[in-house]
Design brief:
Its cofactor is FMN. Keywords: Flavoprotein, FMN, NADP, Oxidoreductase. InterPro entries: NfsB-like, Nitroreductase, Nitroreductase-like. The protein has one domain: NADH Oxidase (3-Layer(aba) Sandwich), CATH 3.40.109. It is α+β, with helices and mostly antiparallel strands. The model has no long low-confidence stretch (mean pLDDT about 95). The chain is about 45% helix and about 15% strand.
Length: about 210
């Protein structure tokens, strides 16, 4: 645990990446697995994770992300895209996967599937879209923690125009919406932000014990 906390103190939102340094395939696969293993409500994982390596696409995205240089300088750009109008089909897919993985007859899982459908499909579409978007933050959190363990820098980003990114990546036709982005790579030695002291609330200000 001490190492984990040390790595959390080491990480920060990198402002300038070293464009000459690339994440290895092995480390990228580890980060992908960390994202895949992220917890989600009901275990549904109602999102897709787009790894944008194409430099031309990243150059197109940059203006829609307030011109942030990390978009094009980082080793990789990841877009977390929540599923729109999530409903019965996504629930059925989980139940099918659960049946195959755990070798449980589908009929035994029907009550769980019905529970999810009753709780989710009755919600207005906007509420469901908001819910699926929130799920992506769980995946981002796991990515941040796993990357810190590998000493890989990550900059989480909400500062972009989702509609533009959706259009550039063709997400709408896939029933997806860009909810979060993250740039991954290695900090540049000229990035002064890495030397700033971490600013967080004190325990007294943050925690309430009842």
């Amino acid at each position: 645990m001490n190492t984990f906390l040390e790595n959390q103190n080491w990480r920060y939102a990198t402002k300038k990446f070293d464009a000459t340094k690339k994440i290895t395939t092995e480390d990228l696969n580890t980060l992908k697995e960390a994202i895949r293993l992220t917890s989600s409500s009901y275990g549904l994982q109602p999102y897709k994770v787009i790894i944008v390596e194409n430099p031309e696409l990243r150059a197109k995205i940059q203006p829609s992300a307030w011109g942030q240089s990390q978009i094009v300088e980082a080793s990789h750009l990841i877009v977390f895209a929540n599923e729109l109008n999530f409903g019965a089909e996504g629930i059925d897919n989980l139940i099918q996967n659960m049946s195959q993985t755990r070798e449980i007859p589908l009929e035994n899982l029907k009550p769980y599937g019905d529970l999810m459908k009753n709780n989710l499909t009755s919600l207005p579409e906007d509420d469901r879209n908001h819910w699926t978007a929130k799920q992506t933050y769980l995946a981002l959190g796991n990515l941040l923690n796993a990357a810190a363990e590998l000493k890989i820098d990550v900059t989480p980003m909400e500062g972009f125009v989702p509609a533009d990114v959706n259009e550039i990546l063709g997400l709408e036709k896939l029933g997806l919406n860009a909810s979060l982005m993250a740039t991954l790579g290695y900090r540049h030695e000229d990035d002064a932000t890495q030397y700033y002291k971490k600013v967080r609330k004190s325990n007294e200000d943050l925690f309430i014990t009842l």
